[in-house]
Amino acid sequence: MLHILKHPLLDSKMAIIRDKSTNTRAFSAIVDEIAMLVTYEITENLKTKEIEVETPFEKVKCRTLDTNIIIVPILRAGLGMVDGIRRIIPFAKVGHIGMYRNENTLKPVEYYFKLPEVDDNTTVLLVDPMLATGNSCNKGIDLLKEKGVKKIIYVGLVGCPQGIKAVEERHPDVEIYLVAVDRELSDIGYILPGLGDCGDRLFGTK
Ligand code: URA
Fold this sequence. Notes:
By secondary structure, the chain is of the alpha/beta class.
């Protein structure tokens, strides 16, 4: 199921990070802010349980999150969204998937995978800002499912029709959250109009 998050604050922040003149510092700060805002939406259906709390006046029944949440960024660009999500869900644990794209085949090559303990009550937020070919996302979901993760929510910034279709076809059970869906994928695997290479822009590597 695809969710495109629409909000004036998100739109304004996306305009800043799409702008090629936005520098590394501002780019990573805004991605962080977007990640915080997006977290509110992606967690709307998480399981809660009833607890009793004592106010200064009396006892009251409240609800609190009852989900083992694990944030799993796909390195490197996914790292740019982790702090923002953690600020909203401070008890979430963090796993990592290291993957790079073979520039010729555009296929993902895995070089690192570390995941905190998973149980039946685990929800993984798989984070990768750009849903381009969908290959990395699909590979990441494959790895998580092999480890027994039953509930996976993909969180990104910009997708394109090709990447969305690829993930929807292979993993129809995964919820996909994006802030924008762009026109197309270029011959060399970049989203157009997009925002460039997100990893490079986050970390100043180009
Ligand atoms: N990865 C990026 O960083 N940017 C794109 O446009 C596509 C994949």
